Amino acid sequence: MPMNRFPIQLRFGDEDSNGHVNNVRFVQFLEEARVRLSLLPLGEELSPAEPAATFRSVTSRTGMTLVARQEIEYRAPMVYRQEPVWVEVWVTGVGGSSLTYGFRIADDDGTVYALAECTLVMADAETGRPTALSDLQIRVLESWRGDPVPFRGSRPANAGNGMSASAGATR
């Protein structure tokens, strides 16, 4: 699975009065990983005319990204320490104007602190209205595509809602 992995250095101030890293900080870890991924050079394979281009530079030409949805499943408490925690990030979905990242926050020893997913929408910088992803953006995102986030209780679409996959909307 195509995945990028970034170290995040914890700060003592990340801990809350309960003695563990506060849940709000996890959202910031996800943001940092997304930004760091967007700043990696695309290279000649994805952007032959401009190998030093980044996803962020390509995106800023056509608009901006807005967070539309974010979900975090906390798996284990994290406490302050000097060793970094690792945030793995990959793409789980690409739509006409949206993209979805998957995340895993973990240690090298295999301890998983959280799984997360974040959907962003490309928008016109002036109007804020959704705008289509470019061919280059889609190529880049597809090169980062991986498996769905393995949330606990994950199940196929329509499972458990009383409708079969072949059930129609009219009854």
Number of helices: 4
**Mean of all residue-level pLDDT scores:** 88
The CA-CA distance between the termini, in Å, is: 41 Å
* Helix and strand element order: EHHHEEEEH
Question: Biggest β-sheet: count, sense, barrel?
Answer: 5 strands, antiparallel
How many β-strand stretches? 5
Q: Strand content of the residues, in percent?
A: 25-35%
Globally, the shape reads globular
Report low-confidence residues grouped into runs of 5 or more. Answer: 158-171
The helicity comes to 10-25%
C-alpha Rg (nearest Å): 18 Å
- Sheet with the most strands: spatial strand order: 1-3-4-5-2
Output the structural class. alpha+beta
Task: Describe the protein in words.
- With 171 residues, the protein is α+β, with helices and mostly antiparallel strands.
- Helix content is 22%, strand content 27%.
- The protein has helices at residues 23-38, 43-46, 55-62, 135-143, and strands at 4-8, 64-74, 85-94, 98-106, 112-123.
- A 5-stranded antiparallel β-sheet has the order 1-3-4-5-2.
- It is globular.
